[in-house]
Amino acid sequence: MNQKRYSNHKIFGMVEVLLLLILTCMFSFSAGQLLRKESGSTNIKKDEYINRFAENYEYITENYYGKIDKKELVDAAIKGMVESLGDDYSNFLDRSESNTFDISLKGEYNGLGISIAKYENKLTVIEVYDDTPAKKMGVEPFDIVKSIDGVDVTNREAHEVTQLIQEKSGDIHFVFIRDKNEKKITLKKEKVILKSVHFSMIDQDQKIGYIQVDIFALNTAEQFKSALKNLEKEGMKGLIIDVRGNGGGHLSSAAEMSSALLDASHVIYQVETKGKKDKKYSTGKDTKKYPIIFLTNGESASGSELFVAAIKENTNAKIVGKKTFGKGTVQELIPLSSDSEYKITVKKWLTPNGTWIHEKGIQPDIEVELSSTYLENPVPDLDNQRQKAIELMKEMIH
Question: Is 17-31+108-193 in CATH node 2.30.42.10?
Fold first, then answer.
């Protein structure tokens, strides 16, 4: 069973992947760079449009023949305004989407530590995260979820099961199917720290370090800096950073990770708002001397692109793989008192040299199509993009 390994953006890249109590809306990560607006009053200049809205709100609430939920009415109005902007990255998030979106970007949550998806029409565990209740109690990848607290869930969708678990507290009794046998496991929610950074020294002789970054959550930068420190202690001579499948996240995390590799003399990105440009400098203390290679693909978006461009345009870093997605805008997240929130595009971001990569992407130095052999059997030795990066790194070290 363990030989049937996978990566979320490789085997399951085309299915709806849900991390229990977290990832109902991973689609939003391709909407990338996020800023959070602190809630508080805003001075609004009252004009004819505000008056028109107020008059109609008052008329509807006073004259509609049935019951009205005023919160839902206002939320619907805000949703309509956001969706009328004609921007793919400006969205209204309802309570469920808002909770899961916030948690995934925060990098921690109170839950079980498993990721599930409909696979071959069965509700299947596709990943079990380390140091979580599920891992401790022996849940395994490719376990099939049969029931939860006696409720048969075999015909339910993953988002329905997520909602079911969100409503539960205390012990949660699962029945899994493993190798055609039933396995009963009781789980209890705990604080789970999401690991968005994975690292190793993939070539001990040449001392080539490898860091995979899955998302730019609030805690990703700290994980990245810790990985960097560990690899440098091992004598790393070259670094490969894998952002394939990484659709973005918090702008602050991407900026902090760029600063971990560049000193304060370097511009790491620029922002443009209504025609005005502002350069953002690194806050780092030194620029790394060892060569760096990025692995990218068409799902590397936003924060990934900012990170790649920051290092590429300031050093001799190389890119291997496929052209990136091409997302050069920044969204602001505005929370509402109703537990929902919305995000709107507020500015463009540009590379250090002032290039807007929106809908263009970043071209690799060496373009490599991922082989069908690897897609059928996704083990590191068959990852031809990664192997090409290792080959190039050996040349750069020498």
Answer: yes
